[in-house]
Each structure stands twice: as structure tokens, then as C-alpha cells.
Amino acid sequence: MNSQAAALKPVAAVSERDMANAIRALAMDSVQKANSGHPGMPMGMADVATVLFSRFINIDPSAPNWPDRDRFVLSAGHGSMLQYALHYLLGYEDMPIEQLQRFRQLGSRTAGHPEYGHALGIETTTGPLGQGISTAVGMALAERMLAARHGADLVDHFTYAIAGDGCLQEGISHEAIDLAGHLKLARLIVFWDDNAISIDGPTSLSTSMDQPARFEAAGWHVQSVDGHDTEAVAAAIEAAQQSDRPSLIACRTVIGKGAPNLGGSEKTHGAPLGDAEIAATRENIGWACAPFEVPDDILFAWREIAERGQAARHTWEQRLAASPQREAFESAVAGALPDAVFEALGAFRKEHVEKATKVATRKASEMALGAINAATELTVGGSADLTHSNLTITKGMDRIAPGDYAGRYIHYGIREHGMAAAMNGIALHGGFVPYGGTFLCFADYARGAMRLSALMGQRVIYVMTHDSIGLGEDGPTHQPIEHLAMLRATPNLNVFRPADIIETAECWELALKSKNRPSVLVLSRQNLPMLRQAHSEKAHSDEPHIDENRSSQGAYVLREPAGHRAVTLIATGSEVEIAVAAAERLETEHGIAAAVVSMPCWELFEEQDAGTRKAVLGSAPRIAVEAAARLGWDRWIGDTGVFVGMTGFGASAPAPDLYRHFDITPEAVAAAALKLII
Ligand SMILES: Cc1ncc(C[n+]2csc(CCOP(=O)(O)OP(=O)(O)O)c2C)c(N)n1
Ligand SMILES: [Mg+2]
């Protein structure tokens, strides 16, 4: 039976108190051995976790990726020893006791904070407070959406998260809670470790928030319990499972529970208890075992939970085998995009090369998405209240609404950070390829979760429009300057800034194919000409290259002059048009052979071999053109290169005026080239 069925009885004869004490002992001993870590939270939440796992949770440690498992998110990631202790006790094969003995050491699976992909069963990376609970919202939403598509027979699970005071103080939690309450994500159950302590001391130092009232105001079902009263916790979980709203269970706990002198104090938050206090704790909780030893009967009780989960998984697998949905479900969960998507994008490129379609790249993205979304159901779109600016919705996309999860467009509201975290959750859950939009400038607001998309290697696609001073009148508050540098500095993130409709379709294709990496599509508000065919023809090259995805190399020669290159102009996005115009001017007015390199994706170009990079960049002096900060461009232009771009914030004016005002024009580029080479 699934976990929403009646609660199971406590397993075997061992008490839940003993089972919880195993967590306490493992946490304090591991932190002591590492001389680093956070014992207070695992000790305080040991009882809640024990009740959750022993009576409710539906996971199978022997098949940690079983699609219909309950999701468990340790949002208070500093309490990682809670997760590792649970994994050892439950018998995850990659979490033997030696891993706990090597807590926080190089190469161990027991990293300082839980890291997705680092150990089996870790559903998401946590540690930056507030991310876990917000990611869990995306998981709970994905669960409902997948159930709407494939039925309750195959998709019927809960998402549980443990959040601390810190998670609830972080601003992102507001966005996440509001979204979850609005969407009535009833399968989301959050435990608040209400210990009234954080690092600096009592939370009363910095907050007077009535958290239950806050959650109630956002439409949650709220209960408050003594987090050490196992029956009360169990009753609350049962009630939460019955609710038609997401649930908060405020668990009043004592941080470092069990430590006779330090329990209840912030001193247990992030430091080893020390040998004397550990000995006193053993005495106090009646734990006679040596460090890292757990009595067989207690271990057995924990392992029984795993067996129960395995049986549930087998039953589910039988349902899957008999289901007419089987193939569709498995392909969705595998995240396999049909060939039709890429065929459609190929046809799209061919059509628009021929038509020389001139549109803003945000519009090109909308048009490409029209082809993509018609060819697959896997993509789910959304925007942080800028749908008609980001152009992220396409024909026939129904919206997700409270209680109605059959659609594929999510109105995330004005919650960039919450959107990014929710997309992480959707991607991690599986079954969908999430993309979501906002203005590039507000990547700042989404940054914490974007960083985790990259760290976790999730296929999340950020559609970030209004990408420069080219947005014009809205002015410097909305004009990104430093954002490209910030995004490009982020490891494992592809930043695409396409120059025209063809590159936009190519970059979408690359983003969709990047299964283990998030992508940012950086798109213009203003119209941009189609550059591909016109200039490759002019350069007497063979074909207009519509079959080959030229952006896949990260950078390519868009315009190769006849004769020996005197200068190479490198540009991205809307500035490629300027570079091309500058090259033409240099050629016609000065007889100077200028090549133009379009560089839609630095990261992919960096991955090319040195020979390919050299062939593209050439040996002539280089000028880079980008309406953004210079930071990073020296990598491509070298010591003697010139950068034409922004040196400070933008201004409010029509876009053409701004380009002139900031001297990012064909004339300026040509003048810089003349100065450089003559
Ligand atoms: C975004 C973010 N800011 C700051 C920190 C550093 N930090 C880690 S735990 C913590 C206090 C958390 O308090 P609480 O959630 O109440 O945890 P408890 O002390 O109860 O275990 C802080 C500030 C962090 N991990 N993430
Ligand atoms: Mg706390």
C-alpha cells in the first residue's frame, strides 16, 4: 500500500525512542570524529524522522530511484548527519558505517551538506537555507502533474521536507510557500524544526514571526506538535496526509536533545559536543554502545522499514507492467525527447534561413518553442509573471491551476527565486523538462537556485529576455550589465546568447540535449536580422549551413573575408549584427579584411580542442563586441585585444539612442579596428 494508507504500526519490539537514539548517537559521534559538523539538528529531529520513516515513508533503499517513491528533502541541510544516519540505518548500499566514520572527508559520500548524486537517495542538494523546501514544492507539483498524465496507479506519492528556522526565515521560503498554498499541493508535508535556536542564539534575537499564521495565510494546513511526542507526530502526519492543502507540522523540539548540559543551546548547532558531553549524553539517553555501533535489534528494526519499502516497490512494478501507460510513463521518466523535436527544429531552421526572418530572439524563441512543444509533451513552461514579455507560452498550452495539474504552463508569479527552485524540483522529480522565463536582470533574484541547478547538473532551461541596454526605455534598473559574467563564471552552466532566429533554434536544441547541465537562453527584446545565410554566401562558403548546428561548437566564423584576415570581430547576440556591419564598413571603406565570429556559447567553445578554437579565432588582432561588462572577454581577445561594450550602468532611452550613447556601433567598432591594426 502507498503511504497515504493508514499508518503502519511501529516495527518490531524495539521502541521508536531507541531507533531515534541510534540517530542521535551516530550524529554526535560522526561530528566528533570529523571535529566538524552540526549535531544539534539531527539530535533534535531524530524523533520526528524516526516516526516519519518507521510508520509512513515509502522508499526502497535497494531501488533508490524508483519513480513512485516518496521524496524526502532535508531542507535544513546542515543537519546532514540526520540523512546519513538514516541511510546507514536503512541499509543503503553506498552508506556503510565507514562512510559515517569519514564524515566530511575528501572523497567520502558523507559531504558536509547533502549533495545530489553524491550518495544514493539524496533527492536534492541542500545547505543554502530555504532551497530544500522550495525545491520540494517543485517536486510536489511534478508529482501532481505526472499523476494527471499517467494516473494514480503509477504516480501517488508524498514529498516530505524538514525545514529549520533558517529555511523559514529565508525570503525564498515565502515565494515557495505562497506558490504551494495557491496550487493546493496537498502531497507536500513540511516539518518545521521549531527549536527556536539558530547560530547566533535564540531566534527571538531576530524574528517575531508567527510562522503557523504565515503558512495559514498562504493556504496551508497547519498543526503544531511536541516534536518529541512520537504519537502526536504520527497523528499529525496522518492528518496532514488527509488534508487537501499542503501541510506544515510545526514540531517543537529541543536542539541537541539528549545532551544533558548543552541540549537547548545554540552551542550544539554547529560544533562537536566534546568527549565529556558525549559521554554524559550516552548516560542520559541510555546508549551503552561504543561509537558507530548500533545494537542488532535496533538495526534490524530500521532494516525492516527498507523491506517494507521494497515490497511496496514490487507491487508498484506489477502495476506498471500491467499498465497501458507503461511505455509513455517510462519514456517520460527517462526524460527522452522524441526525434520529432529535433526534426521540427531542423525544418524550422531551414524555413527561416530561406525566409531570412527578422525577429527579436525572444520572439524567435517563442517560435522555436512552438515547434518544440508541438513535438513533445515533456516540456513544461512558465514565467515569473512575464509570460508576454518572455514569450514562453505557446499554442495549446493549458495552465496549471489549483487542483488542476493536467496543463503544462506554470504561472510562477513574481517569484524568480521560487521559480528557479521549483524548476529544480520538477527536473529532479523526473518526467518533465522545465523551462521558465524572467528578465535577464532578475537572474540575480533567481541566483541561489540557479547555482544549484548547475551544481546538481539538472536540465533546467532559463529563458532570460531583455538582455541588454537594447531593452531601451525601462532603463538601468532593468538593463543587465554584469549578469553574463556572473552566469559565465558559474561552473556547469551553458549560457547561450544567440544572434538571430537560426542561432536561437540551435541553442534551444543544445539546451534540450544537455541532459546534465542547465542552460540560460539570453534573448533580445529588439528585432535582429537573420544573419546566417546572407553572410555565409557573401563569404563564398559552400552552403548556408542549415543542417549543421553551428552553435554546437560554441563559436564559429560567420563571415570570413576573402583574403588574409586583418582583424577578427567577435560578438554575441544583438551585437553580432553590429560586428557584421563594422566588417562590411572596414572592407568597403578601408579595404580591410575583417572576419566576424559569432560566439553564442563560451562554455561550448571552451570545450573544443585547441585547433578548432584557433581556426575560429585566427591569429589576427581581435575585437570583442558585447553590450555588457568586459569581465571575462580578455580570455578571448588576449592582451592586445579591444573590447567594445559597457563600462557602467545603462540609461533610460530608446535602444538606438543608447547604443549610440554608449558607443556600441559599427562606426565605433570599425574605428577601434583601424586604431588596432594601422
Ligand atoms: C542561505 C544561507 N545563509 C546562511 C547559512 C549559514 N547557516 C547555516 S545553518 C544556519 C542557522 C540555521 O538555523 P536553523 O535553521 O534554526 O538551524 P538549527 O540551529 O536549529 O539547527 C545558518 C545561518 C546557510 N547555510 N544558508
Ligand atoms: Mg533552529
What are the segments in which pLDDT stays under 50 over at least 5 consecutive residues? 1-6, 534-543
Portion of residues in beta strands equals 5-15%
Average residue pLDDT: 96
Provide the list of bound ligands, each named once.
thiamine diphosphate, magnesium ion
User: What's the shape?
Assistant: elongated
Q: Structural class, from secondary structure content?
A: alpha/beta
Number of helices: 26
**Which sequence of strands runs across the widest sheet?**
10-9-11-12-14-13
Largest sheet: 6 strands, parallel
Binned, the helix content reads 40-55%
Q: How many angstroms separate the termini?
A: 79 Å
Radius of gyration: 28 Å
**How many beta-strand segments?**
20
In words, what does this structure look like?
The strands form 5 sheets. The chain has a 6-stranded parallel β-sheet, with helices on both faces. It has 678 residues and is an alpha/beta fold. The protein contains 26 helices and 20 strands. The longest helix has 27 residues, at 296-322. Mean pLDDT is 96; it is low at 1-6 and 534-543. The N and C termini lie far apart (79 Å). Helix 17 links the parallel strand 11 and strand 12. Magnesium ion (MG) binds next to strand 4.
